[in-house]
Amino acid sequence: MMSLPAQPLSPLDGRYRSAVGDLGEYLSEAGLNRARVHVEVEWLIAQTDRGFFGTAALDDSQKAALRQVVTDFGQADIDELATLEATTRHDVKAVEYYVRRRLSTLGLDAVAELTHFACTSEDINNLSYAITVRDAVERVWLPKLRSVIETLTAMAREHRDAAMLSRTHGQPATPSTMGKELAVFAHRLGRIVAQVEQTEYLGKFSGATGTFSAHVVAAPDVSWPQVSQEFVESLGLSWNPLTTQIESHDWQAELYGRVSHANRVLHNLATDIWTYISLGYFRQIPAAGATGSSTMPHKVNPIRFENAEANLELSSAVLDSLAATLVTSRLQRDLTDSSAQRNIGVGFGHSLLALDNIQRGLGEIDLDRALLLDDLDHNWEVLGEAIQTVIRAEVVAGRSTISDPYALLKELTRGKRVGAAELAEFVGGLEIGDEAKQRLLALTPPTYVGLADELVDRL
């Protein structure tokens, strides 16, 4: 067998790259290395601004030139770091040497020893991960989720009055409207968005075991906790004052739990839309040139929602594993988190791909209101709930002596098909007040939707 050219192992980097590629700007090895360079550069600038060890503050042009290294970070820099790491066998040490080279190029050798000063690798890594995860969530994942919510909200408003048969336990049940059902998902997802938006991206910067030991020996008069807090917060992160060698990753567990929760709500949405398509409530709009089945030419398959289901399950599997793994570190440090965190992009990638499929899928369906009404017309027995509830109210009001309204309607409707005529005859013979009787006689399955239309406004 002939050997293939080098191929991506993950479909996220191959077949689906166009849908998830934006995450690579942040949650890739290159994105992580750029963030590491950013942290190293800012730490060096922060030290010279404070005049550590007699250094003078860099002038504006020198700071700009250093920060330009981060802004211009590209393929040549990626390749250079790879070459350095091949020698150092240590990714963060390679970044340190890379920054030192840039300092030399800029004529800043005098402050080169402040590169990575008093830092353990995790001081750089934890801040870099916090920056990249934050940016990926806020710039890529959340906007895509918000877009899906906006689509659901628009559909909810469009179909707010589209009465349909509910199917609790898969059986005909009290009618609702398609708009209200879609609004439920938009509301659920909106709550999770609000929670994700409140994520506290934590960072530590306190040395080998979180004690500032080397710092204090090198400069005992410096208020190192204050310096640490100010530096972490200057990166747009929240300072964690109590850690071991690593930042404890609790914020990551909290975030990934919320994203996984969103995945499961989206999975529920995908299975419900799939079911509505199966029932014929939604018609799929055929794409020109597309094939539904390799042998059955009539088929238009709900592949967007099926693809979403699979990717949401994969995403939650990865994120749940990360949330469970990252909160444990033996004593003051072990390296399980190092390997685990390299899969953060995988977890978010599968979720983003699912969101893309759901967004596309929602744009490829059309509600069949006529079928919804026909379905309701074949299930008049769902009005049994309304009738027995009104009878109960009439008994309490003293306008009826019926002893067991529920049993009466159960005998009439349970497991049976009851049409409009039978129900009208039944209601006409009830011992209830005339106003209540007229209300029931006017009721139909499409009008038995309560406040479903109004509830959409709760969005």
Tally the structural domains: 3
- How would a crystallographer describe the biggest sheet? 2 strands, antiparallel
**Low-confidence parts, pLDDT < 50 over ≥5 residues?**
none
Distance between the ends:
58 Å
CATH homologous superfamily placement of the largest domain: Fumarase/aspartase (Central domain)
Helix/strand-derived class? mainly alpha
Topology pattern, helix = H, strand = E: HHHHHHEEHEHHEHEHHHEHHHHHH
Kindly estimate the percentage of residues that lie in beta strands according to DSSP: under 5%
Kindly provide the radius of gyration, computed on alpha-carbon positions and rounded to a whole number of angstroms.
31 Å
The averaged pLDDT comes out at 95
Q: Might you state the CATH topology name of the largest domain?
A: Fumarase C, Chain A, domain 2
- Give the beta-strand count: 6
The first-level CATH class name of the largest domain = Mainly Alpha
Second-tier CATH architecture of the largest domain:
Up-down Bundle
Helix content: 55-70%
What is the overall silhouette?
Answer: elongated
Helix count equals: 19
Strand order of the largest sheet: 1-2
Protein name: Adenylosuccinate lyase
Organism: Agromyces agglutinans
EC number: 4.3.2.2
Domain Fumarate lyase N-terminal: 60-308
Written description of the protein model:
Residues 60-308 form the Fumarate lyase N-terminal domain. Residues 329-449 form the Adenylosuccinate lyase PurB C-terminal domain. The protein is mainly alpha-helical. It is built from 19 helices and six strands. The protein folds into three domains: 22-120, Fumarase/aspartase (N-terminal domain) (Fumarase C, Chain B, domain 1, Orthogonal Bundle), CATH 1.10.275; 122-288 and 297-369, Fumarase C, Chain A, domain 2 (Up-down Bundle); 379-453, Orthogonal Bundle (Ribonucleotide Reductase Protein R1, domain 1). The chain has helices at 17-20, 29-49, 60-71, 75-88, 91-105, 121-158, 178-197, 213-218, 224-234, 250-279, 303-326, 336-341, 344-362, 369-377, 384-396, 405-413, 420-428, 434-442, 452-455; strands at residues 163-166, 173-177, 202-203, 238-239, 282-284, 365-367. It has a two-stranded antiparallel sheet with strand order 1-2. It has a two-stranded parallel sheet with strand order 3-4. Strand 1 (163-166) and strand 2 (173-177) form a beta hairpin. The radius of gyration is 31 Å and the shape is elongated. 38% of the residues are buried. The model has no long low-confidence stretch (mean pLDDT 95).
